[in-house]
Specification:
The chain is an alpha+beta fold and 304 residues long. The protein has three domains: 88 residues, Rossmann fold (3-Layer(aba) Sandwich), CATH 3.40.50; 100 residues, ATP-grasp fold, B domain (D-amino Acid Aminotransferase, Chain A, domain 1), CATH 3.30.470.20; 63 residues, Dna Ligase, domain 1 (2-Layer Sandwich). Helices cover 32% and strands 27% of the residues. α1 packs across α9 and α2 packs antiparallel against α3.
């Protein structure tokens, strides 16, 4: 089945976007890259519609959202509008919102029994030392709730350092998380790439010298790794808890088993493709082919 696929992305030259375009085109599909912020919506009960550069976006069979963290709210609204139009969305609006809300994501995983670092949450505390003790004492990792790609994340090795960071966050009026530091992870984590109910690739990311954050954007390095059955189950369970069909699940290897650090709803493709040597973009398009249906015969109901 030849499909008309929309990719919501601010920049068609980004590696992940260009790879998805390439993979879909190779399989014979009609592909359109749509700048999310340039989409505007006609919200009505008779015929909800999205317009782009003055033209209605009609006839799409599937949409692949690549929504940056800075435009989550507007991006979620655009996805929701496509859902109202009966278009299959690889990443749905509700799962996107869940995964981008770090606190909500942790609370949902806690309820489902998914392993994760001991975490405290606060906006304003009279005694930062009590919050630090709650997660097992120093060293601790402090995270701004709105941070991405390792930004807004600080490792505090002493109580005094941790209290200073907490005071700074409080002064900013920012919500923040305090998490135990998993020493045995050694500055490394694992990114498991989940499509559907399977982990299709995995890489181990190691922090650059003098850095504890393993993000590739921070100069970290990546190499292919083999996951244990428990790590695979944990990654899939975390993605399913969020309701995501495609997810990058970040795992810390600890003495008590795999611990989920984050579930990414728009995982980058460059690192995982280069480390694993696998055609991840092609697998994503194949998943869309298996799960999307022609718009005209689509009988799915939109969830609010």
């Amino acid at each position: 089945m030849i499909m008309k696929i929309g990719i919501l992305s601010r920049n068609r030259r980004l590696y992940s976007t260009s790879r998805l375009v390439e993979a879909a085109t190779e399989r014979g599909h009609e592909v359109h890259v749509l700048d999310t912020l340039k989409c505007y919506m006609d919200i009505n009960s008779a015929k909800p519609m999205i317009y782009y550069k003055g033209e209605p976006l009609e006839g799409f069979d599937a949409v692949i959202p690549r929504i940056g963290a800075s435009i989550t709210e507007y991006g979620t609204a655009v996805i929701r509008q496509f859902e109202m139009m009966g278009v299959y969305c690889l990443t749905e609006s509700i799962p996107l919102g869940r995964s981008r809300d770090k606190l909500r994501a942790l609370q949902l995983m806690s309820r489902k029994g998914v392993g994760m670092p001991v975490t405290g949450f606060a906006h304003d505390v009279e005694n930062g030392r009590q919050l630090i003790k709650m997660v097992g004492g120093t060293p601790v990792v402090l995270k701004l709730l709105e941070g991405t790609q390792g930004r807004g994340v600080v490792l505090a090795e002493t109580y005094k350092a941790a209290e200073s960071v907490i005071d700074a966050f409080i002064e900013l009026g920012a919500d923040f998380l305090v998490q135990e530091f998993i020493k045995e992870a050694g500055g490394s984590d694992v990114r498991a790439f989940v499509i559907g109910r399977r982990v299709v690739a995995a890489m181990e990311r190691s922090a650059a010298e003098g850095e504890f954050r393993s993000n590739l954007h921070r100069g970290g390095s990546a190499s292919a790794t083999k996951l244990t059955p428990e790590e695979r189950r944990t990654a899939v369970k975390a993605a399913q808890t969020m309701g995501l069909s495609v997810a990058g699940v970040d795992i810390l290897r600890s003495s008590r088993g795999p611990l989920i650090m984050e579930v990414n709803s728009s995982p980058g493709l460059r690192g995982i493709e280069e480390a694993s040597g696998k055609d991840i973009a092609g697998r994503i398009i194949a998943y869309v082919e298996e799960n999307a249906r022609p718009t005209k015969s689509d009988s799915r109901r939109t969830r609010g």
